[in-house]
Amino acid sequence: MRENIYLPYQMKIERVTYEAPGVKTFMLKFINEEDREKFEFKAGQFGEYSVYGVGESTFCIASSPTRKGYIECTFRQTGRVTNALSNCEEGSIIGFRGPYGNVFPIEEWKGKNLLFIAGGIALPPMRCVIWNCLDLRENFRDVTIIYGARSVKDLVYKHELKDWELRKDVKLITTVDPGGESPDWRGEIGFVPTIVEKTAPSAKDTIAIVCGPPVMIKFTFPVLAKLGFSDDNIYTTLENRMKCGFGKCGRCNVGKVYVCKDGPVFTLAQLKDLPDEY
Amino acid sequence: MNIEKRFIRKDSLKKLFDALVAKNKVVYAPVTRNGKTSFRIVNDFSLISGDYIQTTQSSKEVTFPRTEKILDFEKNKDGIGVKPVDIQPVHESVIWGIRPCDAVGKGELGAIFNWDSKDEIFNARVAKTTLISFSCSRADEYCFCTSVGGNPGNTEGSDILLTLAGEGGDYLAEIITEKGGAVMAAAPELFEKDPGIEKDKYLASLPARFSHTEIRNKLDKFFESEEWARQSLRCIGCGACAYVCPTCACFDIQDESHGKSGSRVRCWDSCGFSLFTLHTSGHNPREVQSQRWRQRIMHKFSYMPERLSVYGCTGCGRCSRGCPVDMNLLEHLISIQEVTV
Description:
The complex is a heterodimer.
Chain A: E1 9-20, E2 23-30, H1 33-38, E3 46-51, E4 55-60, E5 71-76, H2 80-86, E6 93-100, E7 113-119, H3 123-134, E8 143-149, H4 158-166, E9 171-176, E10 188-189, H5 192-199, E11 206-211, H6 214-226, E12 234-237, E13 253-254, E14 257-258, E15 265-267, H7 268-272
Parallel strand pairs in A: 7-8, 7-11, 8-9, 9-10, 11-12
Antiparallel strand pairs in A: 1-2, 1-6, 2-5, 3-4, 3-6, 12-15, 13-14
Helix pairs in contact in A: 5-6
Chain B: E1 4-8, H1 12-22, E2 26-33, E3 36-41, E4 67-76, E5 79-84, E6 93-98, H2 100-114, H3 120-127, E7 129-134, E8 160-164, E9 171-175, H4 178-186, E10 192-193, H5 212-219, H6 227-232, H7 240-244, E11 251-258, E12 261-268, H8 289-308, H9 318-322, H10 329-338
Helix pairs in contact in B: 5-8
């Protein structure tokens, strides 16, 4: 435990990848050797990323814990801090505090089918767990990824989508909202919940992991219920505004549950116990 | 440590104060200016106000400053240098004249700052702070410590508790902790043998107005109640209640920079502010004032007792005294107890 819990690790931006309009991925390396060796995290956890002089912003760790020595984050340029981050170039130094929060119980999923459903900028929190599972591929049965965005240009991780498409051990379905397709688009056209319904993945021995904008989540859950998924087998991650990341600053709680400590990963069964405050 | 009882004469109080100042302690004490009584650093005993039921601000600033540096940064030719704030040079301080309810607040704040990861910046300040509390011989209509488990002569959280024993102006001194013992050691001749003072006789009478356990149980099923909107219709979301509260700990983290260097600071915030939970997307989980008022009450009387085993309220009544639109916490709690779900 660091004595000053607010002190970030110093990270060097090793690589910047343009993902989609306003969306970038940073590959970050620990400047301090000891920090890099000691640092451990698990899929689902998040951190506070900072530009000194501007402030901190909360997002997930988007790389897999199986890939050692660096972390990645993907963010959309929206507010003050993400704008400042977006202006950072390769070689710049930024701050990172974490990892915070709970994790996806990947160990418990061994021997099951995995169904990943993501929309838009919500693929990053899921990419961490997807790669984590793919790097331990022999432990899982069928892996299906359904990913949709508003338009073709809004799809993130385009290179990785190609990788997943080519892999024989992954079934990838991509979709864009009606009107968002390009002339050479070969994927599906339709909203994510519709495509889930059309694909009709089997609920038998399957864990569904769903991340996306609230409206997508809202319409996807009933589809999964219809397909026979139990609330205990559906996972999602919540986002709420945070400052500290460790249950003190007082703003991310949903009822008595702190998203930063008890989450961000929740099953649908747990979500149903929470008040409507997220 | 067993509580040790001693007796301090009226004219010894100043000598004790002077002894502490002579020992190089930073002494915070209540000073009244323009009708408001606040804790200020005082070197002169005659400036201390004796005639107050409660200070306008609590003393939490001493251990949890309104704005506090957590690190410094400086851009240089190699990139950026970051230095965590050095917590070692925090001064030994004494808070003189706080009420038992504020002393209880120290524990409630401590629970928030230490329930999971330990906030060493806060802890360093607490470790170097000694509380010399004064029991209450008077209370006003806003006070309700007895309804939340406290009392006007409560020793919890204090290092020394002084109780004014009658018109003569002499005090019963209860030495509660080792820190209190160190204060006594600074001027042992002033702490005389206790002649057998009956403390309770000199305390304010303040019958409990509600049952905190009953309220806590009720709140479990109260989230959707219409009472929240009814109570908070006139709330303007100014956050004054949080700023005067001895246990409100919600904070913001901001960067302040001047040219190439700057600091990251932690500053007081309030769940009553509309921007408190606003997402960048524009979505706000607590978008109306009644939801924010509900959060305030639920946090203090339901979530904190459940998660941290302490209430987030000491019954000091400051939020009600300070509210610009006269929202009265005591009345609202009573009405939560009385309303049928």
